[in-house]
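Kindly inspect this one:
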Amino acid sequence: MIYPVFNNVIKAVLLQCCMLVVSILYAQSPTDEWRMELLGKTIYNGLLTGNGLLGTTTYLMSDSVVRVDIGRTDVYDHRADIENKLFTKARLPIGHFLVHFDTPVSVSGKMLLSDANATAAIRTTAGTCYITTTTLSERNIILIEMDKANFTGTSHFSFVPEISQSPRAGFYLSQFPSYKPNPAAVPGKAGEVIFVNQPMTAGGGYCTAYKLISSGERKEVYAVTISYAIAGSNYVRDAINTVKAFSPSAMAGEIVKHRSWWSQYRALSSYKIPDPELQQFYDMQLYKIACATRADKPAIDLQGPWTASTPWPAYWLNLNIQLTYDFFYTANRLSLAESFLRLVDKNRSNLSLNVPEPLRENCIAVGRSAAPDLASPIPIGANGNISTTAAVEISNLTWMLYYYYKHYRYSMDERLKNPLIDLLTRSTNFAINYLKKTTEGRYAFSIRSHSPEYPGSFDFNTNYDLSCLQWGLKTLLEMTATDPDFEQQRKRWKDIQTNLIDYPKDENGFMISSNQPYSVSHRHYSHLLMIYPFCLINYDQPENRTFIQQSLAYWHSKKGAMQGYSLSGAASIFALMKNGDSAVVYLKQLLKRYIRPNSLYAESGPVIETPLSAAGSLQELSLQHWNGVTRVFPAIPSYWKDVSFTNFRTDGAFLVSGYRENSINKRVTVYSEKGGVLAIDSNIELAAVLTKKKCFVMEQQGSIYKVKMEKGGFIEFHKK
């Protein structure tokens, strides 16, 4: 049987000729703009800005009204009820500005990625009015500028607060019929500053304040801010004072700082590919993650700074946050990824409280979803009893810690090592606690659990749990290899790693769990984590290649439940198989079927992870690291003749740059930030090696070089 996934290989061949023509026609520098010819009436057709905390979305509300939504990423309710946390501890909407025009309008727009602003052109019978939004990088101020130089009509500017309630109430109020919104918002004015105070039932609140800071020469500029506090009332004063202190004279300097920040950010790495659609998409994801978070700002939830009606007003921890952050590391955006580390580190106490009380001394875990406090108990009774309706996912935190580990390895920041070992030890302890030896002397899970997203799964030994546990044990053994303090623990870890039962599988590929074959469509690849991203089963193992192909093919042979990240996941697995043509076919399907006009993605409401994971899949065509080897240009599609990247980051804190011309890999360079040993496959036949500084080749096996580099070392591989 030829499964549908491999029918796409045939499609890839047919696409090559067309794509080659496209690549020739558009072989130019990537555009700095994301243009939208017609703004629609949802946020998916809107223009986006953000600074990691505040954000805006500009779109058309009606035939004569333009809407500018504003959001703040840390505004969450904080009531005590954890059981109903998607209501009582939900992300809350802020409100929106409306610009009413006296005639019908049509609106086009663009996002300027270098300057990080968005301009909507509102065409009316009285001329064109331009609305430009800028969310300043160095100040928590949003600028909304209305340019009326070519507009002779009238307009009216106003703010409308949203009802302060969980957006989930609009979808699933029957789950919690006694839920009530927060108190009504209270408008006010303090001199020239207009504000709206939104008190919260649990204490504290948030406040939106704005003022007109510049008016003249047919131009109006409004400065906007949002304050938030979980207790007290000073947040109202803070919002008023922030806007009051922002003067027209300060605006020019802040815009210079804003542009400087974005210029430095964009220079951290580059990626040039000969496909204009994928190039623009990749650049847009770099823009979005810097809009959505910063080192000192909240971690990215499912919405980022752009709020909308959604049943997902929280963090989802069994795929979404993992896919969101994977893209950051190769892109050399470690600073942004620090927000993820802070989310984990600051909530260690709640991670402990998430497990049954007898295990809290040395175990941690997290459930399916949570507010920023990561309070999400695993529904296992103290005696191990589990309700058959409980969503028991015992390995979510271990998968999250894969990205904590990736941050450590890609930065080689030794301050992260011991905290990571502690976190990973306690996370794997939680799974180990539920292992028992079989009569054959193998370790197996003694409780049933769920494979995320698989319908009705509640069984022993999910491949999700086995993969996460095997990766956790492997990583702990590597990280503690030379530390005598872990001698006894290492014996235990090695025993479990060696004797853990095999991954359940059948004639079609990897199963869901011991007694559950993959039999109905499954959008999540939770049963395939040993292939991707952990690479425990990988293409370096000839005996596993056919089975990897078979598992991928059978997964995608059942189409009904597939979603966008099903396609990005398949693309990444194809990249690991060195099959760039099929990977791009899946990414093109993703863009065509699921990605909205402004590159957002939705499943009933906005969910941010899928476009970001697809950008990661694009990176994997040009740079991968797994099984101890960094691979350069491992899966370039056949129609990509010229490809280059600069300062992509890889394991060991090495910065790699590559240049490919006319389908030939010409040059690869590596710079070492911290010093160390790198195994690298330059994928250059008959490579010449130039070591310029503090570097020497230890050994060579085919095209793989093992290189020892001191801090500041540099090596170049180039075509002879």
Remarks:
- The CA atoms of residues 521 and 559 lie 6 Å apart.
